[in-house]
Amino acid sequence: MTTPRFTLHHAPRSRSARALWLLEEAQVPYDVALHDLQQASQKDAAYLAVNPAGKVPALVDRGPDGTWSAVVTESAAICAYVADALPESHLAPAISSPLRGAYMTWLAYCPGVLEPAFADLVFARVAEPPRSALGWPPFEAVIDRLEQALQTGPWLLGDTFSAADVLIGSMLQWLDAWGKLPPREAVPRYLHALASRPALLRAQAKDAALGPVPK
How many domains does the chain have? Predict the structure, then answer.
């Protein structure tokens, strides 16, 4: 099959950079369909047929032999999909592994807890809702839980790096760059370890080289 198995719909310097990093970690051939968020190319009819939400990333999988096609949207789903589709990448514990439960929890934790708690922090409501009405704790408590999880090893699963580290690590990198992380000890060590991963460095270089979409 001459066409790469995967096509990533991506906008440089956007949240889809985490999917670019994931594919570099997986060391799988892929190509990139560029989008310009300033020009709203992700709202074009052709792309809305791929992802009706009009967001990036979206991943097209043509299958191992190119005989079928599937579309995956949402970063957490893309991380889970690629890790399971490519077990040789070792980005997910096996179903039978005792680490699988924690892995699945952290995949869900980013969009289900970390991101909404952060949104509450920076976009305060006019009136505070009852805590019992929310499915996530305050932002500081979310970071406390991550801090505790990172006490036992360099990664969320201890010595085992996984796609969950791509998902949560990319979010923490963004929060750190924005100056929104409260002081902790293990989280900065985690960010330092992530920053030295060759796949992340390749993804960052590729993202920078892609630059703005040509007019």
Answer: 2
> Which range marks the domain in which residue 139 is found?
100-197
Q: Which stretches within 72-138 are classed as H helix?
A: 75-85, 100-109, 115-122
Asked if residue 12 has pLDDT above 90, the reply is yes
Residue closest to 210 by CA, chosen among 5, 4, 8 = 8
Region 29-33 average pLDDT? 97
Q: What's the token pair of residue 121? A: 């922090």
Phi, psi (deg, nearest 5) at residue 59: -120, 130
Instruction: Return the higher-pLDDT residue of 105 and 2.
Output: 105
* Residue 118 DSSP class: H
The backbone torsions φ and ψ at residue 72, rounded to the nearest 5 degrees and listed phi first, read -125, 130
CA–CA separation, 174 and 176 (whole Å): 5
**CA–CA distance, 73 with 56 (Å, rounded to integer):** 8
Q: Is 83 in the same domain as 147?
A: no
pLDDT tens digits, one per residue of 78-122: 999 999 999 999 999 999 999 999 999 999 999 999 999 999 999
Longest CA span, the chain: 56
- The span from the CA of 39 to the CA of 154, in Å, is 40
Task: For residues 84 and 155, state if they share a domain.
Answer: no
Instruction: Tell me the whole-structure pTM to 2 decimals.
Output: 0.94
Neighbours of 30 (CB within 10 A): 20
The CATH number for 206's domain is 3.40.30.10
